[in-house]
Amino acid sequence: MSYEQEEEDHYGPGYEVGSYTKDYNDGPYDGENDLNLNSNPEGKPRILLMGLRRSGKSSIQKVVFHKMSPNETLFLESTNKIVKDEISNSSFVQFQIWDFPGQVDFFDPNFDCEMIFGGCGALVFVIDAQDDYIDALMKLNLTVTRAYKVNPNIRFEVFIHKVDGLSDDHKIEAQRDIHQRANDELMEEGFDSVNLSFYLTSIYDHSSYKKNVLQSFIIDSNEALDFKLVREPSDVDNDETTFKPEMSHQIFGENESIFGYQNLKISLYYTAGKLNTYLGMNYSKKVDPKQFEGATADDVMGAITPKLPPGYMTNLDDFLVTLNKEQSFKPPGELLSTYSINKGTNTTDYKGSAAEKNFELYSCTIEEPSFRSYHERLQTFLLWYVDAASFIDVDDDRWRFYLIFEKYPCDGSHRYALCGYATVYLYFAYPNKTRPRISQFLVLPPFQRVGLGAELLNTIYRSFLKDSNILDITVEDPSEEFTRLRDFVDAQNSKKLSSYSKEKLQQGFNAEMVEDAQRELKINKKQARRVYEILRFEATNLADVEEYRAYRLDVKRRLNIPYQKEASDYKKLQKALNAEELRSTLSTSTKEQRIENLDKQYQMLENEYRHTLERLAATK
Ligand SMILES: Nc1nc2c(ncn2[C@@H]2O[C@H](COP(=O)(O)OP(=O)(O)OP(=O)(O)O)[C@@H](O)[C@H]2O)c(=O)[nH]1
Predict the structure, then answer these.
(1) How high is the mean pLDDT of the chain?
(2) What CATH fold (topology level) applies to the domain 217-323?
(3) Is the domain covering 335-538 a CATH 3.10.20.30 domain?
(4) Which atom of ligand 1 is nearest the CA belonging to 73?
(5) Best mutation site among 4, 22, 54 for ligand 1, i.e. most ligand atoms within 8 A of its Cβ?
(6) So what's the pLDDT on residue 331?
(7) Given 476, 481, 538, 608, which residue is catalytic?
(8) 531 and 523 in contact (C-beta within 8 Å)?
(9) Does ligand 1 have an atom closer than 6 angstroms to the CB of 162?
(10) Ligand 1, atom nearest to 55 Cα
(11) Non-local CB neighbours of 572 within 8 Å, separated by 6+ positions
(12) Which 8-state DSSP code applies to residue 87?
């Protein structure tokens, strides 16, 4: 903490520029003299803290007398009534501080000037030096005028506060200016003998202040964002309907942080069915470039709006009006399947973990009337939930879209709320077949963990099963989460195939499995092998040392294939290069390293398989 001070009075007669040391207790209010001189006959000496809102009154008091760290004052609430604080550091130093709310009104009949100024020793008036201080000076003038009339003995101390953010030149200028103007105005009022003492003060020392305050303006962008799928106006004020993004680096950069605001909230709301969109933001404080060498706050709206299709709203009332159109919303395309949870239970709580919920799964192409613009709104979710997501070229007619909606009761009828969606691209498979590839797959957070992902994937599968033109189904860059889901669904389905019976699994992976999985379930060869490993693990008696070892070897043999390739490449290179060239071309691993790596890979896989089998067991 530092109190900066001016040593001399260069600002004309009648004013004393007091010195003010770091330790408040050595300052003007300490020492018997002051206390005796200003003592209040009704009790302890009283010091009043006055000034405009947010000038720093409570912070000064908390830091000086209550050991609050300066950074914590950033979160002080505005004072809205007089707060009286008893200070008793020793039997000598005892007084009261009355912290006044910034908006105190002397003309309010409840403001008892006689009582307040009457028994008061000193009045500290705080002026925020980083602010435009015209209003503060007017208030100072009014305060001094009122107080002096009641109590001509009162001492007036003016704290030109928050000087940490000012350059040295700026500080001197502020002090001179405030001094001069306060003097002139009081002279005009006819007060020529009031002594005002001026101090340059701050609760921060300059360098740590800057660092800490800059820090306080950096916000986690995932935390700042609030999503909602709004069904009714009350959802806006209901925290339970809020969900968060999983990532925001595609909008706010690798660090997923936003600079320049305190208590920033970004609201990205969609109506639950039609996905009409609202974008809003609010914050308690924005960084002032004058204080931070020109550093400006990030342009939050400018980062998000280019990603939103035209038509989004920035006025919440306008957005809520569009809820009226939700009743006419019908999901696009063809209804492929329905799905229910908690059937027969009729509790109706919002989150409704116990309530019956009904879902419908649809499929369509971009030709579906009005789906093009719907998809533009829909795909904005990808930015926050799918890594490296890119918006697709919907003009390519080989895209298929799958959507899940909750069909929920409303006003005696029902409405639809979006829960998730997937896109699938119909690739060619040589010579004349089609190989659909699942590209984007998303179940929104409020609808996760109720089986909708598995339902969506199964619906996609079923939509292709009967088509003999479809070779098998692949997945583009599957995330870990999607891999888990796919393993579960594929293993669950493959269990029903005779080629995956327990006996056959124990005999090893074979062509029949590949053919069956492809023909019956459109599972491709690589995935068929993975499913085999999962199901064989389930069928393996882990207590039987030999059986377990045979399983591990079988998996490790597959894992070793790339190493074998490396070894044969090495042999070829050995023939073509001399020893030196060979060393600089290849860093072949030793046998021990290879075994260690294989073991690690195996352990990771086994863990994944265990998770899949746990889920399978739980859904039996
Ligand atoms: N830069 C800077 N900021 C400060 C300093 N002292 C206080 N502040 C900040 O100023 C803001 C307002 O502080 P408060 O102490 O709540 O102000 P107040 O005058 O009590 O405000 P009201 O209760 O509304 O009358 C807070 O965010 C503080 O962190 C300072 O010396 N330097």
Answers:
(1) 87
(2) Histone Acetyltransferase; domain 1 (3.90.360)
(3) no
(4) 29
(5) 54
(6) 98
(7) 476
(8) yes
(9) yes
(10) 19
(11) none
(12) E
pLDDT band at 368 (very low <50, low <70, confident <90, very high): very high
- Residue carrying structure tokens 């209804």: 335
Identical topology for domains 217-323 and 335-538: no
Pairwise CA distance, residues 525 & 515, whole Å: 8
Q: Give kind and range of the element (H or E) at residue 521.
A: helix 511-521
**More confident position, 459 or 355:** 459
Answer whether 54's CB lies under 8 Å from 130's CB: no
- Euclidean distance between CA atoms 488 and 613, whole angstroms: 8
Q: How far is the CA of 196 from the centre of ligand 1 (A)?
A: 22
- Strands, DSSP E only, in 373-517? 399-410, 413-429, 433-443, 474-475
Tell me what the mean pLDDT of segment 544-567 comes to.
Answer: 91
> Which atom of ligand 1 lies nearest, measured to the CA of 130?
1
Residue 276 Cβ < 6 Å to ligand 1:
no
Tens-digit pLDDT profile for residues 501-515: 999 999 999 999 999
For residue 101 and ligand 1, the question of a CB distance below 6 A is answered with yes
Alpha carbon of 29 to ligand 1 centroid (Å): 21
592 is catalytic: no
pLDDT score for 354: 64
Q: What are 271-281's pLDDT values in tens digits?
A: 999 999 999 99
* pLDDT at residue 563 in the model: 78
Query: Is it true that domain 2-205 has CATH number 3.40.50.300?
Result: yes
Interface predicted TM-score (ipTM): 0.98
74 touches ligand 1 (CB under 6 Å): yes
> In the chain, what are the domain boundaries?
2-205, 217-323, 335-538, 545-618
CA of 160 to the centre of ligand 1 (A): 12
What is the CA 141 to chain-centroid distance, rounded?
Answer: 45
